[in-house]
Amino acid sequence: MKKMSILTVSMVVLCGLVVAPTYAATVFATDTPDIVLAPGTSGDAVFNLNDFFDGAASYTATGGSVNAAGVATVFGQAAPGKLTATFTGGGVSVSSTVQVSNFMIGNGPAIDNNNRLAGVAAGNIFFNGIAPGSSVNSAVALTLPAAGAGGGTPGGVTGGAALIATIGQVKLDVAPSGLRVRTSSVVASGAGAASAGGLTATLNANGSYTLAAASNFEGAWIVTFGASDGASADGVHLLAAPAVAVGLGNAAGFVVMPPGSFAGVTPTFAASGITVNAPQNQGALVISAAPIAVSGQCTVELEYMSNSANVTVAAVAFDGALGPDTVAYANQSGANIAVNQKKIVAVALDSKSGGVSPAFQVFNSGSAAATVTISALRVVKAGPIVDYAMNVNAVAYQDALDSIAGWSAIQGGSAPAAAAGGMALNGAGGFANGMMMVACPAGTIVGEAYVKRTGAAAAGSAFAIVVTDGAINNMSTFVPGASISESGFTRVICSGTNSAATAVNFFVVQCAGFNGTVDSVAVRVVNEKDSYFDATLLGI
Question: Interior CA angle at 98 toward 53 and 190, to 5°?
């Protein structure tokens, strides 16, 4: 059984309490991704329709085909032009625009690496946190159509193809079945440049681009850069959202604590970064003393460099008060640490308090001393990138919890119990949890649970959601029991990134100090293809 929430990935993100709406239909669906193809080719196995329908027993297709497993192929044609592939299940139809194009825009933003996969040195070019009053220039230029006679200019043409820039938004509605329904729209467009919400996006003829944020920049926007000659077209999409950077040079602006029960060290503070020199089994938890105002979803990012792989570097967010029941974190360690390379680690959360204190923790488990420097710490006012993908329903695991078969308790917790509408975790006076083993791919991972409190919450009580392989990947969020509603379901997420696929992960939900009902859970992942694009956002 599932509940209803509304997420608007644009000016506002609405999260929190969720209620069940009434729908007449029993089949729910969302549009499949648009596909770009070279002339004379087809798009084979481009997506699985089971990611885009709930309740359909079988499918039919026009402009494409679908096999018994729901895997779809879209048909192309010999000449450039725009086609439509329509898929129907249970009387409900969705469609993909199929753009046959003589050119493809290469080097597009990589939505799934989030700057934490092995071998990725640059920042994630999809996820752009920009401080109001500043700008971001492209790290990697897009490969546009070859210039013809006379070349091209921003707002002009390149090789006969007009440059396109749009600023748009994506809205997610969550159906009672749990399917996330994605719709997109454009709010501003231009021939190579567009402006909206204090953001100006400019695409140059050489493929470089700039995102410039005015002082009034507000909202999370999807920027699309592309080109069209009337018959051929292609484009890439990226996220731009306000970021609040934390100044690093003043030690008085931070609270420094030992890493758990281990000995702490005193970091050195400079404008260029905070350096932690840690002997074996020592480290530091460093917390920004001034909370940053947020509304709903946000992401805490830090840039780090380590001279050792024997360290754990965690991005940490305290939601409201500083405590073990208000924290979200994502750890990087071992094979996830790229030695002597600048990397980013991030954690996303749904803020319940409206104020987030960004933090980080460094711990050295190696026998030799280690040095880690944090060169940036910021809060980006946008959620995890799984919410901005073309396939927003890609999961490693999903469970409506109509049955609790396969769930078990761990670490002495009371076992989960079947309950009307979900899984009961009766943690009053102690703790109760449920655990499921999940295989996760490389890339961004987001654990998700909807929970409702069914009684009073004791002081210090908390709901926890964890995804971990028990070794080098650990992503966790703890929410005070009192912040979990009794009248509706509260969405709680944890997030992080796998540097490589992991076959065994522990997915855990837990109520400690209160009784709760968990109504649906998922481990969301990114499953995008180079051929995906959004024709609406491209404006074609």
Answer: 110
